[in-house]
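Summary of Year 1 activities. Much of the first year was spent building the evaluation harness for sequence design. The harness presents a backbone, in tokenized form, and records the residue chosen at every position. We chose the following record to illustrate the format because it has been used consistently in internal testing since the harness was completed.
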């Protein structure tokens, strides 16, 4: 239920500033960019549906709110990279491991996807697909690291 706190920007910011625009474009690019992750997720894409509220809340807060606010003062790249560092920190706190530190890298991709599509739908779909891919390939990834 911690994700409810992450949704507080919905109460204080206009929805279009949080990335709630270009939804069709965002969904289209989200699924297109997620295809490789979906294909290699061992048919568990729909088994992870209960994580959608958490993924959505994280994207609203980190990409829609924080990245957009930082972008106003820092610019595109610094805001994406700083947001990605801040995104990785709670993952490392909850699950201290090298794999948790690696959440920085998909977060950068999520950040660029929001920047280019201007839609919160794209990073949300990518985030969900990335989580599903990771969960279905966790043994392989932990073996490699």
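For this record, the design step produced the sequence shown next.
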């Amino acid at each position: 239920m911690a994700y409810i706190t992450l949704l507080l920007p919905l109460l204080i910011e206009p929805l279009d500033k949080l990335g709630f625009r270009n939804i069709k474009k965002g969904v289209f690019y989200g699924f297109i960019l997620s295809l490789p992750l979906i294909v290699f997720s061992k048919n568990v894409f729909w088994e992870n549906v209960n994580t959608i509220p958490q993924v959505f809340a994280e994207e609203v807060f980190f990409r829609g709110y924080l990245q957009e606010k930082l972008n106003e003062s820092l610019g595109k790249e610094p805001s994406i990279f700083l947001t990605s560092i801040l995104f990785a920190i709670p993952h490392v706190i909850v699950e201290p491991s090298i794999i948790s530190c690696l959440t920085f890298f998909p977060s950068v991709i999520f950040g660029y996807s929001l920047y280019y599509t201007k839609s919160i739908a794209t990073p949300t779909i990518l985030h969900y697909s990335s989580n599903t891919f990771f969960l279905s390939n966790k043994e392989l990834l932990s073996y490699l690291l």
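The two ends are 31 Å apart (CA to CA). Quantitative recovery figures across the full test set are reported in Table 2.
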